[in-house]
Amino acid sequence: MLEESDDPVVKTVQPSLKTGRKWKVTEAVDEAKECLKMKKVIGQTQTDRRGLGSTTAKWWSKTGGKEKRDMIIDEIRNKDDSTRVQKAVQQPQQGQWTHWDTAI
Question: Keywords, A to Z (predicted)?
Fold first, then answer.
């Protein structure tokens, strides 16, 4: 939120956020931004059984303000969910719920 400010003094302020050892906020946000920019380069792809053009895509370069923050939060959340599912799939007994259609 501070990085998107119009004031140059506010842009330069970097607050220290204590999150623990395994997760760094600045790294996660930077990675999410790069991923969103890469999605713009790749373009819209088909997902699930829906065809191309059935959903509207939000592009990083065409949004601003709150929409960009929401996109970053969603991207971080999606990445965390995918890593959680990957860990569950790697565990044969605990990861059996990934094969159920209704659980996901």
Answer: Nucleotidyltransferase, RNA-directed DNA polymerase, Transferase
